[in-house]
Every structure is written in structure tokens, then in C-alpha cells.
């Protein structure tokens, strides 16, 4: 498998890891869109949100739990933060391994229009 995130999980590619447990790995985004921009990925390869099965529900929930946990640990949970999951090309997905973006440290607004 030629998946960038699988290679990071397997330590074939270095990354700035900020959290790890048995099911999830979180690391700093190399092109941050906020003062804090962390990618939270399951260690199990699932290509897109469309591929999530019922047996994966706890794992996907763990991504959300991890995002909230990291936001608290990093000190911006009370001020607020953004979590984003992209799906497929039109949704902005560029790495086909589900992942959550955790962004904080600045105010966010919806684009006008």
C-alpha cells in the first residue's frame, strides 16, 4: 500500500507526533492553516468517510474524542476550535486515509457568500 499516512504510522516517514494510543496517531500538519493544526488519523486504513462501516463507529468516535482531548491539553478548548474531515476530491481530500484536522489558536469564521 502506498498510503502516506500508513507510512507515517509505520514510522517509514518522519512526522512531528503529538499523540499516540493503540488506535490513533496525531501529528502536526506540515502546511498549517492555524497556529495549531494537527492531523488525527486512525491506525486502521480506511480510505474515505464513504468507506466507514458500522464496525468502525467507535474508531471514528475516538478521532473526535482525541480532538477534544488535545484541544483541552493545548489550552484552546474553552475559546473554541475547528475540526474538519474531508471526503473525496470535491470535498478537498488529498490523502486517501480518513483523518481529522484539529485547528485552534485563532478565531474562525465561515466564508462569505
Summarize the structure.
Helices cover 21% and strands 22% of the residues. With 113 residues, it is of the alpha+beta class.
Radius of gyration: 14 Å
Superfamily (CATH H level) name: HIT-like
Low-confidence stretches: none
Question: Gap between N and C termini, in Å?
Answer: 40 Å
Largest sheet: 5 strands, antiparallel
- Number of DSSP strands? 5
For the record, the CATH class is Alpha Beta
Task: Describe this protein's structure.
Helix content is 21%, strand content 22%. It is an alpha+beta fold. It has one domain: HIT family, subunit A, CATH 3.30.428.10. A 5-stranded antiparallel β-sheet has the order 1-2-3-5-4, covered by helices on one side. Strand 1 and strand 2 form a beta hairpin. The longest helix is centred in the middle third of the chain and has 18 residues. The radius of gyration is 14 Å and the shape is globular. The mean pLDDT is 95.
Descriptors:
22% strand, 5 strands, single chain, alpha+beta, HIT family, subunit A, 113 residues, 5-stranded antiparallel sheet
Topology (SSEs and partners):
Elements: H1 4-9, E1 17-20, E2 24-28, E3 36-42, H2 57-74, E4 81-84, E5 100-104
Antiparallel strand pairs: 1-2, 2-3, 3-5, 4-5
